[in-house]
């Protein structure tokens, strides 16, 4: 199956529509979903439902003291949970969202899908794939990156040459596109190995993006990239790695759960818990990873992180050795 990344789909709240999201995943293997924070905040007077709605993330939510941070955290996690639930055809509160050591989100027990989350201001984006790995990033289209030092700290020599050749009129738009692609790629890699944005690059044209080495030679690898407008004033980029899983069309919960977890899901629920066989863990248990300080995309915050350094690791698609270890 040829990997294709379609335009992000707008979902304005828990009621969806979700069928187009399922259809896009079935057709293309990957789907991007976006929403805004006001549409995804729970109605007033439903605060008592938050522990059930957020699951393991409830403990992380309680560490925030600023109302705005609590709202952004709540809305983004609810969008992610509802999107995954729609794909898996299960209830959102049964989606057991957890985090890898680098802070990368995943759905426990459902290893046939991969998820990614990003947000800026009130805009939130979720990526889901059944192809292998996915990373997403969103930025304002008018974010000023040209002539701010970003080119030196985040661009390869090849990319800087292409920026110069493209002219001043397109320079900032190209920089926003490059930045979001690099963030999306680093999120797809995950795992917390540090490497610099100057150690891998992208060749761009009006139809696509390709991973290249710092000198502009092709890097290869089974990666597909896409950049799209969304929400009127934002840019969304996505990176998808094709792990060669084939073409499974049915990703409902009863086919994607590990066999042991599916057996547990079918078992009788504990009295009064609403949690089949304790699938979601103890109500007051804390995932040690989810308790880490997380950035907008769910990754751990690195103090005084330089502009050109990110948390990521894995197959660089032939780019070569990663940068210095953290």
Automatic annotation (TrEMBL):
Origin superkingdom: Bacteria
Assigned keywords, A-Z: Transferase
Entry keyword annotation includes Methyltransferase: no
Molecular-function GO term, any one: holo-[acyl-carrier-protein] synthase activity
Gly residues: bias regions: 315-326
Region Disordered: start-end pairs: 305-326
UniProt keyword annotation of Transcription regulation present: no
GO cellular component: cytosol
Domain 4'-phosphopantetheinyl transferase, residue spans: 133-238
Residues of the signal peptide: none
Record InterPro entries: 4-PPantetheinyl_Trfase_dom, 4-PPantetheinyl_Trfase_dom_sf, P-Pant_transferase_sf
A biological-process GO annotation: lysine biosynthetic process via aminoadipic acid
Family classification: Belongs to the P-Pant transferase superfamily. Gsp/Sfp/HetI/AcpT family.
Protein name in the entry: 4'-phosphopantetheinyl transferase domain-containing protein
């Amino acid at each position: 199956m040829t990997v294709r990344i379609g335009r992000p789909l707008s979902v304005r709240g828990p009621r969806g529509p979700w069928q187009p999201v399922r259809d896009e995943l079935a057709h293309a293997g990957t789907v991007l979903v976006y929403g805004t924070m006001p549409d995804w905040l729970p109605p007033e007077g439903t605060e008592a439902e938050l522990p059930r709605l957020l699951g393991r993330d409830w403990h992380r939510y309680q560490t925030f003291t600023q109302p705005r941070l609590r709202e952004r955290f709540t809305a983004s996690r609810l969008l992610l949970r509802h999107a995954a639930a729609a794909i898996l055809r299960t209830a959102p509160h049964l989606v057991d969202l957890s985090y890898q050591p680098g802070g990368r989100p995943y759905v426990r027990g459902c290893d046939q899908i991969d998820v990614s989350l990003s947000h800026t201001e009130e805009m939130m984006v979720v990526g889901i794939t059944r192809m292998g790995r996915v990373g997403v990033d969103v930025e304002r289209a008018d974010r000023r990156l040209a002539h701010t030092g970003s080119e030196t700290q985040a661009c390869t020599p090849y990319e800087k040459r292409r920026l110069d050749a493209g002219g001043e009129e397109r320079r900032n738009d190209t920089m926003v596109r490059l930045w979001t692609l690099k963030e999306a790629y680093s999120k797809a890699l995950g795992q917390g190995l540090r490497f610099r944005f100057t150690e891998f690059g992208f060749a761009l044209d009006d139809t696509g993006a390709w991973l290249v080495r710092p000198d502009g030679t092709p890097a290869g690898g089974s990666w597909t990239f896409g950049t799209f407008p969304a929400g009127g004033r934002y840019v969304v980029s996505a990176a998808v790695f094709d792990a060669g899983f084939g073409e499974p069309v049915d990703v409902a919960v009863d086919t994607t759960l590990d066999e042991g977890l599916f057996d547990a899901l079918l078992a009788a629920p504990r009295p009064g818990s609403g949690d089949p066989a304790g699938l979601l863990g103890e109500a007051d248990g804390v995932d040690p990873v989810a308790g880490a300080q997380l950035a907008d995309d769910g990754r751990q915050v690195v103090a005084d992180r330089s502009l050109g350094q990110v948390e990521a690791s894995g197959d660089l698609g032939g780019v070569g050795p990663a940068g210095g270890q953290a």
